[in-house]
Amino acid sequence: MLSALLDLVLPVRCGGCDAPGTPWCRECARVLNDPPAQVHVRVDPGVPVWALGAYSGVRRNAVVAAKERGRRDLAAPLGLAAAVAVARLRRWGELPAGPLIVVPAPTRARAARARGGDPVTRMARCAASHDPTLHVHPMLVTGATVRDSVGLSASQRQDNLAGRISIRADSVPRSLPLLVIDDIVTTGATTREAVRVLRKGGFRTSGILVIARA
């Protein structure tokens, strides 16, 4: 009864295509199940970058809804897609088998508060719920002076982040391989700085996995 009343007030719609009656439809699940492909970004992070597809259509709608429209429930399908992608990359020999540290790309604290938490970390934890070998550690932190990157060029993004990502990893084992995960890669500036900081901290980064490449 309560669910039916809520549907009347706030009709449930698919986060990928806006179809009514379901938070995530089968067709959008099929699209999100595209295999990961290695992509080249303008700012090379020095490790492979894999994306599930272009930042358009279903992928764009889901990412925007999760980040900007309060659709926390979309962490579940996005996380499942990430877990399936990790399994495929392991099967292809691109990622090592066994325990893998998953590090969400850093998010500005103000943005995370406005969104009710970090959607990338939420997605990573949903991925780990499908694969017990994935251990999520949100250990990358952005400085207070980092600006929103929307509208910035590749060089401006690099300048914006240079020296402004730090690491909190006192209890994280440095012997395990590591995968950085994010929702979108644009120029690659964030991932490059993240990889640099992780390497400086003694971690071995195996690659970067994103839902979409802009």
UniProtKB/TrEMBL annotation:
Similarity-based family: Belongs to the ComF/GntX family.
Protein name listed in UniProt: ComF family protein
Cited PANTHER family: DNA UTILIZATION PROTEIN YHGH (PTHR47505:SF1)
InterPro entries: ComF/GntX_DNA_util-trans, PRTase-like, PRTase_dom
Lineage of the species this protein comes from: Bacteria, Bacillati, Actinomycetota, Actinomycetes, Mycobacteriales
